[in-house]
Amino acid sequence: MGISDLIILPHKVETAQWNCFRGNVRNLLAVLSQSNDGIEEGLSSLTRRGDLGSWKGNLVRELSMVFQDVGYHTFLLPNEMDFENLSYYAHLMKLPMVVSMKMSFNDDATKYGHVIGLCPYFSSGCFKLNISIIEGAHPKLQAIEFTKENIRWCCGDESQTKFGGFAFFPGKALSKRFLHSVGQGVNNGLKIVVCLGKNVNVSKHYQELRRQNIVMGDVEYYRKMITPTRNSGSKNSIVL
Fold first, then answer.
1. What ranges do the domains of the chain cover?
2. What is the third-level CATH fold of 15-171+219-227?
3. C-alpha to C-alpha distance for 79 and 233, rounded to whole angstroms
4. What are the tens digits of pLDDT across the range 74-84?
5. Taking the CA of residue 91 as centre, how many other CA atoms within 13 Å lie in the half-sphere pointing to its CB?
6. Which of 92, 98, 96 is nearest to 62 (CA)?
7. Hey, which of 139, 183, 193, 233 has its CA 20 to 30 A from 10?
């Protein structure tokens, strides 16, 4: 069931509207209880450029810069990944991710773009970390489990799709802004995905946040995960 018990996704994504970029970024932030006016302004600016069905430029890379401008740490994923590499980084980093897909349905076709979110979460009653797909095209507006079959539902034949994107978590100042509202929600029993910087001081009143926080380290901890190595047999050897 993924995290469908946490929230009904607030934004419906429809092919006719070409609104996956804006809709699913909003959906991902809603699951994290981190809706942000600065990101909303950045999304509006980027989506005024026209039809998002065909890829023009690198909107996801530009969006990562919007996230940085409002106080997030972002980590660009390798370009042109297959599903196995996407899965590798998702399970390695265990951070929220904005994921872009480039899809083509024959050799001569235009490569169409799609954007989804990935969101780690702790299962109810235990501390096993799972990952869900945030996709507003779901008919019940629910998050779904991150599996190859469900990715195929999102993009068609995953073997013909190349993935990219970025992972993120809020920096210290932004985490302080979220701390009170997220802490109150957790203390009130709401099922919220907690994603806050590890270097934020948490009062005794909000200690449950520490146990539920999906962020496991600092910036350098995550940066090492995506730094290319000289070992060509390693997943980390993928060039950014």
1. 15-171+219-227
2. Cathepsin B; Chain A (3.90.70)
3. 17
4. 999 998 899 99
5. 11
6. 98
7. 183
